[in-house]
Task: structure prediction
Amino acid sequence: MADFIKHNSTSFPDALFYEARGLEVLADTLKTAGVTELRVPEVTSVSEQELVIPRINPGPATEATMAILGEGLARMHAIRQPQYGFADDNMIGLSPQKNRLTDDWGDFFLEDRLGVQVGMIRNRQVKEEFEAVLRTKGDALAQFLNAHCEHPSLLHGDLWSGNVLFDTTGPWLIDPAVYYGDREADIAMTELFGGFSTAFYRAYDRIYPRTGVYVTKRAIYNLYHTLNHYNLFGASYLDACRRNLGVIASQV
Result:
């Protein structure tokens, strides 16, 4: 199998090392879960400039391979991890992702996910708008998330359709932003940009059904990603941020 060479397109010299570590953690956890059909490319070499992995020749997803993805992800999520967060900082796409290890999921997501992204907003008026909601709703938000998260799970962390490839034998996970958190944060992101079929969700729910408050959590968890896209790419993502923020303001 030929190699694929990914070049570091960020200003962060450790970005590819973070990605390599994420691939390793994903592979180890899938192995622990006994998942063999959902795969992660093995890192051949990594430096500040290049990440070398085997080349995957992607093809279209089928209902069968979507089901393999859903079942494999559910089995990985079912592995109970000791804490939330992660020992080291890493990246979420082109942005730094702050991490720490903690027993308090709600506080971690409020401070180290939403708080960090809101703190990066450059428009003062928009920043104050979001800070006001997190200030008044933050405690209730953290309590809500803690009440509705069963245990820490390993998350891919950036699970949109571009980070899943399919070849002739099944799915591959690439470009992770791993940490330990509420499994439904991964599922929420699959709905942010679409591309995952009904077969994926049916297979996932058969192994590890989503909770009754998933729809509310979906907006909360996707606020992190829409804020990240707003900070990276600008005002076209602001309406989506406000819609997700509105769920926190009105339902938590």
In short: Helices lie at 15-32, 63-77, 105-119, 124-147, 183-190, 198-207, 214-233, 238-251. The chain has a mean pLDDT of 96.
